[in-house]
Specification:
Largest sheet of chain A: none
Number of helices of chain A: 3
Strand order of the largest sheet of chain B: 1-2
Shape of chain A: elongated
Low-confidence stretches of chain A: none
Oligomer: heterodimer
Radius of gyration of chain B: 28 Å
Structural class of chain B: mainly alpha
Distance between the termini of chain A: 56 Å
Number of helices of chain B: 26
Mean pLDDT of chain A: 90
Number of domains of chain A: 1
Low-confidence stretches of chain B: none
Mean pLDDT of chain B: 87
Largest interface: A-B, 13 and 12 residues
Largest sheet of chain B: 2 strands, antiparallel
Order of helices and strands of chain B: HEEHHHHHHHHHHHHHHHHHHHHHHHHH
Helix content of chain B: over 70%
C-alpha cells in the first residue's frame, strides 16, 4: 500500500474546497451552486478520511459517512428549492430571487 | 333582591365589553339588542331593587354589598363595595331609567351612522361608570366612576372626530373638568391623610368627631371637593366647556350633558353633606356659586341662536339652582330638582334631536318655525318639558322642585338668604323668557322649515314617556296647598337631614309660590309679546334694554372664553412653541440620528442575494479560523 504524505492529501482537499467555494460564489445558476456545495462537502470528507488514516482511527471514516448523509439531505432540500425557484420565477438565476433585500 | 345589586353596573359594563370586542360582527340588530338591552335590564334590576328597598327597608336604611377587596397599600384598603341607600335609589333609578329611554331614542337618531356600535359601546360604558359613581361606597370607587364618565364624555363629544372642531370641543371639556378633578384628587388625599379612610360613611363619621365646625382643615377639604363639583357640574368659573360639549350627538347631550353626568357634582356634595356642614363658609360659597351661575347662564341663554346652546346654558342655570339649594342645606330639594331636571331636560334635548332628524340637522332657532302642526308629538312633548323647565304653576314637575328650592332659600338662616332667594326669583323670570322664546321661535310663527320625514316610534315613544314623567314626576313632594305630599323628602330624610330652616308659615309659602307663578307667566308673556307680536327686530327680547354690546357679551358667555384664551391657553401655547427646539432635545435627537445612520449602513449588507450571503459566510469562517490559529 502506498502511503501518501498527509500534506499532499490535505492540499488536494483544500484545493477542492476552494474550487467549490469559487464555483459557489461565481455561478449564478442554482444547479451549479448545488454541485459546488457538493464539491466542498466532499473536500471536507477527504480531509476527514486523510486525518483518520494518519492517526489510525475509525472516526475519520465515520465522519465521512455522516457527511454523505448530510449531503444527501442537503441535496433533497436544495433540489426542492430549485424546483420552487423555477416555479416561482421561471429562472434558476439565484440573483433574481432578491426580494428580501433591505 | 338587594344581593343582585352588582348587576346594575355590571350589565351595562358587559354590554360595553361585548360591543367593544364584537361590535362589527354583531351587525345592526345585534348592536341594538346588546346596547339597549343591557341598559334596559339594568333599569329593570334597579327598579326591582328599589321596590325591594322601599317595601322592606334594611336596618339603618342602607345596604352594603362588598364584592371584593380592591387592593391593600400601606393602610389603604378600599373595597369594591356598593352602597345602597335612599339617595342611591333615586340616582340609580334616574340614571338607568332616563338612560334607557335615551338609548331607545338613539336607535332612531343614530340609525344611519357608521359608528353605530361604537356609539352604543361608549354609551353603555358611560352608564356603567355613572352607576359606579352613585353606588360606590368608597370615595375611591366614586372617583373611578367620576373619571370614567369624564372619559366617556370626552369620547362622545368627539364622536364625529373627523370634524376638527368636535375634537377641540372634546379636548376642552376634558381639560376644563380636569382642573376641577385635580382639586377633588387633592381633597381625597387630604381626607385620607387626616382620617385614614376613604369609606364614605366612615369618613363622614370620623370627620364630625375629629374636626370642629369651621376649622381650617374642614374648610380646605370642603373647598377642594367643591372645586371638583364645580368642574364636573359646569358651574362658575368652569362652566365654559358645557356649551361647546353640544358638538356631540344630541342624545349624548341629553344623557351626559343634561340628565346625569353634570349632576355628579350635586350628588357629590349631597353625599358628603356631613363634611360640608362642618364648613359653613364653603356652604355659603356653594350657594353663591349656584346663584351667580344661574343668573349668568340665564342671561346667556336668552341671547343664543342655536337651540342646543340655549339648552346647554339652561342646564348650567338649572344646576345652579341645585347648588343654591345645597348651599342653604336643602339637600333633598336639590336632589328633587336633580330628578325632575333629568326628566324634562333630557326630554327637551331629545325633542331638539327629533327636530334635527326631521329638519336637515337645522339648529338655528331663527331658521326654524311653524313646526307646531308638522311635528305635533314633538311639539306637545316639548311644550310639556318647557313648562316644567320654566316652572309653570301646578301642572309641571319643575314648579314643585324649583318652588321647594326657592322657599328653602327664603327660609334659610343664612344671612344672605334674601339675596339668594332674589337671585333665584330673577332666574325664574329669565328661565321663562328663554324657554318660551325657544318654543315660540321653533314651533310658531311663519313656517319655513321643511320637514324631511316624520319621527318614527323609537323617537316618539321615549318623548311621550318622558313627558309623562316631566308632568307627573313632581307630585312626590308638593306644598300644602296641593295636598302636602312629602313622600320624596321623607324617603331621603333617612340619609339627607332636613334643612336647618325655620318652618315657613302656610301663608308665606303660598305667597312665595304665587309670586313665582306670576313671574313665570310674566316671562311667558314677554316671550310671546316679543316673538309673536312682530317685535322681533332684535335677536332677543332684552337686547333693546341693554344694547347690542351687552348682548354680544352675554352671547359669548360673559367673555369668560376669551379671558381664559388670552390668560391661559395662549401663553401656554406660546411657551410650548418656544420650548419645541430647546437644547435638551439635542441629546435624544442625537441618539435617534445615530441609530438611524447605523441602520442605513447595515441595511446595505442585506442584499437578498444568496451568493452574497455565502461569501459573507466564507469570509466569516476565514476570519474565525484566523483568530483561532493566530491570536
Amino acid at each position: 500500500m502506498i502511503q501518501l504524505p498527509l500534506v499532499q492529501v490535505l492540499s488536494l482537499a483544500g484545493l477542492l474546497f476552494v474550487m467549490g467555494l469559487i464555483g459557489l460564489l461565481v455561478r449564478r445558476n442554482a444547479l451549479f451552486m448545488l454541485i459546488s456545495v457538493e464539491v466542498m462537502l466532499n473536500a471536507a470528507g477527504l480531509a476527514f478520511v486523510a486525518a483518520g488514516s494518519r492517526w489510525q482511527q475509525a472516526d475519520g471514516q465515520v465522519m465521512f459517512l455522516f457527511i454523505l448523509t448530510v449531503a444527501a439531505a442537503e441535496v433533497a432540500v436544495g433540489l426542492a428549492l430549485v424546483l420552487g425557484l423555477h416555479r416561482q420565477l421561471k429562472t434558476l438565476d439565484t440573483d433574481a430571487a432578491d426580494s428580501l433585500g433591505g | 333582591m338587594l344581593s343582585t345589586l352588582w348587576l346594575i353596573p355590571a350589565l351595562p359594563l358587559a354590554g360595553f365589553v361585548l360591543l367593544a370586542l364584537f361590535g362589527r360582527r354583531l351587525g345592526h340588530a345585534g348592536t341594538t339588542a346588546v346596547g339597549v338591552g343591557s341598559v334596559g335590564l339594568a333599569a329593570a334590576v334597579a327598579l326591582a331593587a328599589a321596590l325591594a328597598f322601599i317595601l322592606s327597608p334594611p336596618s339603618g336604611w342602607s345596604h352594603t354589598l362588598v364584592l371584593w377587596r380592591w387592593f391593600t397599600v400601606n393602610g389603604l384598603q378600599p373595597d369594591i363595595a356598593l352602597f345602597y341607600d335612599p339617595l342611591a335609589v333615586v340616582m340609580t333609578l334616574v340614571v338607568t331609567g332616563v338612560g334607557f329611554l335615551i338609548h331607545v331614542f338613539s336607535t332612531g337618531y343614530m340609525a344611519d351612522d357608521d359608528g353605530y356600535s361604537r356609539y352604543f359601546a361608549y354609551m353603555n360604558l358611560f352608564v356603567a361608570m355613572m352607576l359606579l359613581l352613585v353606588l360606590g361606597r368608597s370615595l375611591l370607587l366614586l372617583y373611578l366612576g367620576w373619571e370614567g364618565v369624564g372619559l366617556c364624555s370626552y369620547l362622545l363629544i368627539g364622536f364625529w372626530y373627523r370634524d376638527l372642531a368636535n375634537g377641540r370641543a372634546a379636548r376642552k371639556a376634558f381639560i376644563v373638568t380636569r382642573v376641577g378633578d385635580t382639586a377633588l384628587t387633592i381633597g381625597l388625599f387630604l381626607i385620607f391623610l387626616n382620617l385614614g379612610t376613604l369609606d364614605i360613611p366612615a369618613l363622614v363619621g370620623l370627620a364630625t368627631q375629629q374636626w370642629a365646625a369651621g376649622t381650617g382643615l374642614a374648610i380646605g377639604v370642603a373647598a377642594l371637593l367643591l372645586g371638583g363639583a364645580v368642574g364636573k357640574s359646569a358651574q362658575l368659573p368652569l362652566q365654559t366647556w358645557l356649551p361647546d360639549a353640544m358638538a356631540g350627538p344630541t342624545p349624548v347631550s341629553a344623557l351626559i350633558h343634561a340628565a346625569t353626568m353634570v349632576t355628579a357634582g350635586v350628588y357629590l356634595i349631597a353625599r358628603l353633606h356631613g363634611l360640608f356642614l362642618l364648613a359653613p363658609p364653603v356652604m355659603t360659597a356653594v350657594a353663591i356659586v349656584g346663584a351667580a351661575t344661574l343668573l349668568l347662564a340665564g342671561f346667556s341663554a336668552i341671547t343664543q341662536r342655536d337651540i342646543k346652546r340655549v339648552l346647554a346654558y339652561s342646564t348650567i342655570s338649572q344646576i345652579g339652582y341645585m347648588f343654591l339649594a345645597l348651599g342653604v342645606g336643602a339637600w333633598s330639594a336639590a336632589v328633587f330638582h336633580l330628578m325632575t331636571h333629568a326628566f324634562f331636560k333630557s326630554l327637551l334635548f331629545l325633542g331638539a334631536g327629533a327636530i334635527m332628524v326631521c329638519c336637515h340637522e337645522e339648529r338655528d332657532l331663527f331658521r326654524l318655525g311653524g313646526l307646531r302642526t308638522r311635528l305635533p308629538v314633538v311639539f306637545w312633548t316639548f311644550l310639556v318639558a318647557s313648562a316644567a323647565l320654566s316652572g309653570f304653576p301646578l301642572v309641571s314637575a319643575g314648579f314643585y322642585s324649583k318652588g321647594l328650592i326657592l322657599s328653602s332659600a327664603f327660609a334659610s338662616t343664612n344671612p344672605l338668604a334674601f339675596w339668594l332667594w332674589l337671585a333665584g326669583l330673577i332666574g325664574v323670570l329669565l328661565t321663562a323668557i328663554y324657554t318660551f322664546r325657544m318654543v315660540f321661535l321653533a314651533f310658531y310663527g311663519p313656517g319655513e322649515t321643511e320637514v324631511e320625514h316624520r319621527p318614527g316610534a323609537n323617537l316618539t315613544v321615549p318623548l311621550v314617556i318622558l313627558a309623562v314623567l316631566a308632568c307627573g314626576g313632581g307630585f312626590v313632594e308638593t306644598p300644602f296647598f296641593v295636598g302636602g305630599i312629602h313622600v320624596f323628602g321623607d324617603f331621603l330624610r333617612h340619609v339627607l337631614p332636613a334643612p336647618a330652616e325655620t318652618h315657613l308659615a302656610d301663608g308665606t309659602e303660598a305667597a312665595l309660590e304665587g309670586l313665582a307663578s306670576a313671574i313665570v307667566l310674566l316671562g311667558i308673556f314677554v316671550a310671546w309679546w316679543w316673538v309673536l307680536r312682530g317685535r322681533r327686530t332684535k335677536p332677543s327680547p332684552i337686547t333693546p334694554l341693554v344694547g347690542e354690546r351687552v348682548h354680544a357679551f352675554w352671547f359669548g358667555d360673559w367673555g369668560l372664553d376669551t379671558l381664559y384664551e388670552t390668560l391661559l391657553v395662549h401663553p401656554w401655547a406660546t411657551l410650548a412653541q418656544v420650548g419645541r427646539g430647546d437644547v435638551v432635545d439635542l441629546w435624544p435627537r442625537a441618539v435617534a440620528w445615530t441609530a438611524r445612520a447605523l441602520s442605513l449602513g447595515l441595511r446595505k449588507t442585506q442584499t437578498g442575494r444568496v451568493r452574497w450571503y455565502a461569501g459573507g459566510l466564507a469570509v466569516g469562517a476565514a476570519v474565525a479560523l484566523g483568530v483561532v490559529l493566530w491570536l
